[in-house]
Amino acid sequence: MTINGSELLDKTESYEEWLASVARNANPLTVSPEWVLTDTFFAIDSENKIVGIIDLRHTLNEFLINFGNCGYSVRPSERKKGYATGMLKQLLIVAKEAGLKQLHLSVERDNLPSVKTIINNGGIYERSFDYEGIQADIYKITL
């Protein structure tokens, strides 16, 4: 299972290894040369349960140009409860405070809940692209 917005948590051997990588990539002095400065946040519900994850990529490198400034995932059992929309709304505040003027977000065209989340947060369709045979769209949110 892919966990979007997790800075490869789904592909890392251990949580400790992942957390060390996330900490390095959140610091301009230690960010990986193959990556970009990134802040990663967990979404927590009222019972202190992790319900989602979201990241903010402060810039886009050649690899990220079609993936955008942000990725997010919500635990399958917690979907359709407004968490993704709320997570993205909060991230827009963080991005603006960090000095970003706009965010680009990519979404697979058939992921209608995510398309709705982006549009509900001010996303405007910008362009389409094909990634490994899957149609995807880029939306822009002006901050």
TrEMBL record:
Any one Gene Ontology MF annotation carried by this entry is: acyltransferase activity, transferring groups other than amino-acyl groups
Q: Where is the N-acetyltransferase domain?
A: 6-143
Name the domain of life this protein comes from. Answer: Bacteria
What name does UniProt use for this protein? GNAT family N-acetyltransferase
